[in-house]
Design brief:
about 200 residues, ATP binding, globular, D-amino Acid Aminotransferase, Chain A, domain 1, CPAse_ATP-bd, Acetyl/propionyl-CoA carboxylase, alpha subunit
Length: about 200
């Protein structure tokens, strides 16, 4: 299936049980060149909020990733972007169909560093604000030479992070070190799991 057919067909289809959310960061240079980074996947959601994103997206076929990058660059060109923007897709992992969720041009202070990870794998963890403790929200960005290395670093950083309430810390640790997430399960498939009791952080 070529990019044009996949893109146009998927706009009319709803997200399925195998939905994945993928961000493609695009930079349009002053000379007209357009670069697209690798796919960042919104891997773990809670109450409609993205808690964990990672790059490259686990188990994403190279051909599909390149298709999404090509479409993202085409959108940036068609909209006359200049600078950094993000194109968000919903991908049905079973059918291979995808649809555009949003395309946003970022301010000059956007996450240019997220275009390409500084190492082979990157993990971004969103820490929610806590008004009772006077703690603002934060983003934890961890790099690793492998996905496993990045997961281990993120696990240790969250374990050692001061000020996290126990339920939030346990939730994040459960997800990061769970067999399902470590195997590369993401998106709607991961969200359907209700029993995390097999993981040591649940105790």
């Amino acid at each position: 299936m070529d990019a044009k057919t996949s893109f146009e067909t998927s706009l009319a289809s709803g997200a399925g049980a195998a939905e994945r959310r993928l961000d493609i960061h695009v930079v349009v240079h002053e000379d007209g060149r357009i670069d697209a980074g690798r796919a960042w996947e919104r891997c773990v959601w809670r109450d409609q909020r993205v808690l964990i994103a990672e790059c490259p997206a686990p188990r994403l076929a190279p051909r599909m990733e390149q298709t999404l990058r090509d479409v993202a660059m085409r959108i940036a060109a068609d909209r006359g972007w200049m600078g950094l923007g993000t194109v968000v897709f919903s991908l049905d992992d079973v059918s291979g169909l995808f649809r555009l969720i949003e395309a946003t041009l970022q301010p000059s202070s956007g996450k240019a560093a997220l275009m390409e990870p500084l190492a082979a794998h990157a993990l971004e963890v969103h820490i929610g604000a806590c008004a009772a403790l006077g703690r603002p929200g934060a983003n934890l960005l961890v790099w690793g030479t492998t996905r496993g290395d990045a997961l281990r670093r993120a696990y240790k950083a969250i374990t050692d992070m001061p000020g996290l309430v126990v339920p939030e810390r346990a939730f994040l640790l459960n997800r990061i070190a769970s067999p399902a997430f470590c195997s590369g399960l993401t998106g709607a498939r991961l969200a359907r799991i209700s029993d995390w009791s097999d993981h040591r952080a649940a105790s």
